[in-house]
UniProtKB/TrEMBL annotation, chain A:
The keyword Chloroplast does not apply. It is found in: Cell membrane. Pfam families: BPD_transp_1, SBP_bac_3. Residues 1-28 form the signal peptide. This is ABC transporter permease subunit. CDD domains: TM_PBP2.
UniProtKB/TrEMBL annotation, chain B:
It is a peripheral membrane protein. Keywords: Amino-acid transport, ATP-binding, Cell membrane, Membrane, Nucleotide-binding, Transport. The lineage of its organism: Bacteria, Bacillati, Bacillota, Bacilli, Lactobacillales. Belongs to the ABC transporter superfamily. This is Phosphonate-transporting ATPase.
Amino acid sequence: MKKFAKWLFLVVTVVVTLGVTGNMNTKADSNTPATDQYLSKVKAKGELVVGTSPDFPPYEFTKNINGKSKVVGMDMEISKKVASDMGVKLVIRRMDFDSLLVALQTGKVDMVIAGMSKTPKRAKSVDFSNVYYKAGEDLVIKKSDLKTIKSYKSLAGKAIGAQTGSIQYNLVKNQATKSTLKGMDKDTDLILALQTNKIDAIALDQPTAEAYAKNTDGLVAINAHFKDEGEQGSAIAFPKGAQSLVNSANKSIAEIKAKNLIHKQYLPNAGKYLATGKSKSAKAANSMWAYKDFFIAGVGYTLMISAVSVVIGFLLGTLLALMRLSKNKIANGISVSYIEFVRGTPLMVQILFIYFGLGLVVNIPALLSGIIAVSLNSGAYVAEVIRSGISSIAVGQTEASRSLGLSRSMTMRFIILPQAMKNIWPALGNEFVSLIKESSIVSIIGVKDLIYQSRIVQADTYRGVMPLLITMILYFIMTFGLSRLMKFFEGRMTHE
Amino acid sequence: MNNETATPVLEVKHLKKVFGKNEVLKDINEQVSNGQVICLIGPSGAGKSTFLRCLNMLDQPTSGEVLFEGQDLTKLDDKQLDKTRENMGMVFQSFNLFPHKTVIENIKLAPVKVKGEDDATATATAEKLLKQVGLENKADAFPASLSGGQQQRVAIARALAMNPKVMLFDEPTSALDPEMVGEVLKVMQDLASEGMTMVVVTHEMGFARNVADKVWFMADGYIQESAEPKTFFEHPETDRAKDFLAKILEA
Ligand SMILES: Nc1ncnc2c1ncn2[C@@H]1O[C@H](COP(=O)(O)OP(=O)(O)OP(=O)(O)O)[C@@H](O)[C@H]1O
Ligand SMILES: [Mg+2]
């Protein structure tokens, strides 16, 4: 996932330097009168789109409510208040923590609330509201280690996990220099790593740590005793220059503080959800069944993305292959460059680029972005499959056909392609199978495919391994079933 | 058989074909009149196949003219060329049947797709041609299940189905086992006696001697000799031809 962060950074740098916004340098502080259009735009839309990464109880986490996964938690209650103070509806977008600020900068969301600490570094690219909550740092450890681990200092020579890009990540990096730092993208993965002894402790902020400890058997939270590095606590992030939104949020935060709503109302509410989460995980044996709709939906999306992409990829690939085989130098050049470029760059970056990069010009929803990226990618690979399928047909076939008076295109249609398809078909089947697996990467932009759903189930149930196992089995059923199906058709074709 | 006075069906003037730096055909000037059977012989690599492929423009000549019924093919566009090729059947050394189609589909394909014949007509023609080449019981077989000789006879039938005015043969028996050469030559001989205009590249000297009206001997990029078979085989003029014939007889 570190790789992801790196790519993301690259994409964002490119995108941002390509000139997203001209007012990067405006300094914001809470008393600045607002002259920008952000608030009026939000009001005009009638909705405030909030980005969050719901794996961070009690700030934000997901809850299976009547079969639907909902984002709940303290931050969500704050968001509700901020939105209602603005007089608009609240819309929640889930994404990876690392993607949040990119989404903010590229206008995919209006604000980000994710237990995110206000750091000077982040403040360079976004504007923050006032701090609404400040908590200390804890370590989540196994109960059995309670006697030996007293603070981060007891963990010399051991591994400490933290969410990549988080405050705790930097604290461990700077202070626990004798320990190994393992960064992961999801808290749920960290918990899993702790339970399976991959790491010895997780650095989390206090309420989150306590929430996990309370809801996971065998884990406890202790004070990490990190030195204060001047953390500012959690604040809401807005696009650079969105002073009108900052002001409005600050007003809401002031009211929340005045009425002590966080401690009186929000945290206890979050705790209630967590409590039912506990009782749910207690009924572990059948709890996965309760999430069957999630897995079914995930399989549906994964199959849909792969199937649509393989069809578009096939059409595009055929076109590219014919261009590549044509005598026209321009067509040939375009095709060769496209194929080489797409095959020479990771699908992950292509997906990010389509979603975030192209998203600057036209707003493409995540699912569509994912399908476009995977199709465009697949097209390049299929083109090579088709090209080699066509090239494998002896030149005598073309000569015989042309000598009979068939035109170039008729020859392609009636003689070459039907024969080439026998070679292409199995390769195309393989492509479909690998698309099913590779398309899992669209979950990074929040497409609700199987991987994404398994993440939700993990977060909801506090169970790490079971959802993964089920996901793996589902992937296997899809790929194995599909390759069997292909074999069947292949057999029928050679029968002819 | 000979009516050399009529307009030639095929005529080449100063035909030249270069592959990179390799001047394969240097300056060819010949004509083929209606009903004539020409046998083109010469050493390997002389450019016989290249010449044949220039006649129906599967290879684009570097310069010179190729006239079919008086029309210069080198000046035609793709569409007109496709139209012209309908009238020039070609048979290849390696048969080149379409392996994904049955024998009768191989034969019917061009009449149906190119000429727009209806299925019944095309089928009737195909059956008649299969009978002519002695393969009426193989209509529904796939090419892979046929012997080389049978495949080549199907290939001839396929070319004939377009009702061509000229048939071009490029070493039609060279890829065959010796016992199958006869059956193919027999079909070609029948065709010749029915008055088909034919240009045949071959190493079958017996066929050339008995069936051809004229033998062209090609070497070094030129047609070195163009003569009646009897004259050519009994009194070759050039040293190149004498050499070639001596080697053939040795073999
Ligand atoms: N497409 C091509 N590109 C380059 N060179 C070619 C091509 N086709 C033929 N040649 C060359 O042209 C020359 C004549 O080849 P061609 O096949 O016409 O000879 P041939 O007389 O038919 O010989 P053979 O009796 O072996 O069939 C050879 O040197 C061959 O290498
Ligand atoms: Mg040859």
